[in-house]
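A.,

Following up on our hallway conversation. Structure tokens first:
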């Protein structure tokens, strides 16, 4: 028997949830269904903190109670087929659901490299499955030697968390020459490296893993430089790829990099099918090139765009491109980045001016819990418009990078940032005379004037 719904969402991650909430707000009379695979979902960004910061991995469960209280239907099942002509889907349980509008929020799946011995026990991918992750956390807590493969955000955060458990030998193995290589310039990524090394994490860069050695369980890892490291657990934090098989089988357009093609309103090549989140195409804010950015914050922004415009373009809330705004927390240090780094801006042939400032995030600087703060801003040399920024310091940097992010989206110039009006308080911000964002912009403005008029 076919069950009828107005709006069907495949996927119960942040993108699917926000799409459903937004759709309910704009189309309250529509009957909405979310189909998710996992009985117990997890908060994706909270996965590393299941290891140490949270008392129990169950504290990272993604609850659907509020969603269901809104009148949105949620079922646990797996979609096997989409019939775009008949506008219906078939699930693993043998059920059929018809729809008026279908949203694909199928997310991404962890990359599993072709390395000899990868099937051995004790090697874990970063899956968004509660029971799988609970097993991973239990193994980590019981083990003494752990190797994390990948020096991106997930690898760095997991290694940081493991080091907090004490009495662990923790390694990060990264094939590039530095950790966090794609998001930060070297002077910022080195701060994270220093923190991790102070926490007894050994960082090995510029090498690849060639083999996992052991009988049934992993016991050693052989690297491309010939080094062999003893281990009990291996965590593969090397990224993810879009989960687009359903879309591909349904005949939707897929991009060269394997994402579901969407327009500025998150519509796919099929008029009544939308795609949001990690499975959907991302275009760089500046170059419009296809980029592999997977962030819950971007996924939820896309969910709001799709949810509002399912039936009519009620609000002009199109996706103008992906800025790429990240933040992370390593050993008490907050690092944030938004837009283009200096190295990526130069790689794309932008002519730029860089503004820098280092100070303290409270005033006076001797107040309790005051932290050093470091800000770097990238501007277009000719227009003065901000292209990117990076920050490092205390917890205030988590919101400071969001301020830089909105400045990028609104195409703010260094002149506007230099004359920014802002609130200050001794415990909350730098001094009004030493406001970090303003002085970094002022540094760039000074260089601009010097180059233009000297």
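Then the amino acids I'd put at each of the 454 positions:
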């Amino acid at each position: 028997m076919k069950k009828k719904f107005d709006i069907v969402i495949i996927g119960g991650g942040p993108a699917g949830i926000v799409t459903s909430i937004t759709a309910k707000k704009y189309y309250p009379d529509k009957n909405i269904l979310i189909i998710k695979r996992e009985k117990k979902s997890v908060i994706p960004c909270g996965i590393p903190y299941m290891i140490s910061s949270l008392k129990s991995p169950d504290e990272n469960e993604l609850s659907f109670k509020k969603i269901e209280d809104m009148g949105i239907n949620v079922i646990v099942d797996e979609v096997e087929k989409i019939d775009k002509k008949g506008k219906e889907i078939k699930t693993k349980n043998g059920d059929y659901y018809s729809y008026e509008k279908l949203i694909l929020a199928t997310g991404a799946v962890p990359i599993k490299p072709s390395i000899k011995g990868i099937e051995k026990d004790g090697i874990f991918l970063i899956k968004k499955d509660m029971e799988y992750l609970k097993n991973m956390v239990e193994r980590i807590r019981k083990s003494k030697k752990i190797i994390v493969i990948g020096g991106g955000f997930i690898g760095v955060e997991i290694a940081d968390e493991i080091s907090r458990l004490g009495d662990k030998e923790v390694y990060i193995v990264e094939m590039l020459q530095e950790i966090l290589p794609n998001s930060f310039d070297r002077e910022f990524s080195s701060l994270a490296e220093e923190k991790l090394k102070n926490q007894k994490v050994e960082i090995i860069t510029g090498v690849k893993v060639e083999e996992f050695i052991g009988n049934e369980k992993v016991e050693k890892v052989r690297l491309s430089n010939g080094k062999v490291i003893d281990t009990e657990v291996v965590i593969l934090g090397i990224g993810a790829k879009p989960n687009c098989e359903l879309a591909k089988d349904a005949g939707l357009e897929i991009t060269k990099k394997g994402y579901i093609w969407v327009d500025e309103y998150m519509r796919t090549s099929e008029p009544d099918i939308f795609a949001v989140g990690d499975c959907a195409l991302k275009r760089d804010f500046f170059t419009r090139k296809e980029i592999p950015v997977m962030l819950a914050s971007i996924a939820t922004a896309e969910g709001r765009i799709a949810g509002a415009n399912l039936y009519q373009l009620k609000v002009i809330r199109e996706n103008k491109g992906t800025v790429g705004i990240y933040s992370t927390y390593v050993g008490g240090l907050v690092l944030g980045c938004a837009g283009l780094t200096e190295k990526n801006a130069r790689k794309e042939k932008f002519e730029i001016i860089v503004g820098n400032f280092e100070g303290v995030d409270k005033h006076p600087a001797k107040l309790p819990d005051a932290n050093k703060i470091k800000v770097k801003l990238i501007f277009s040399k000719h227009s003065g418009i901000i292209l990117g920024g990076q920050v490092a310091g205390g917890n205030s940097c988590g919101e400071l990078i969001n301020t830089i992010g909105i400045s990028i989206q609104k195409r703010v110039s260094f002149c506007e940032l230099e004359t920014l009006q802002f609130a200050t308080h001794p415990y909350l911000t730098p001094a009004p005379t030493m406001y970090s964002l303003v002085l970094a912009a002022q540094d760039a403005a000074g260089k601009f004037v010097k180059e233009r008029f000297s």
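The chain has three domains: 2-37+77-109+241-308, 123-238, 333-453. Curious whether your intuition agrees with the design.

B.
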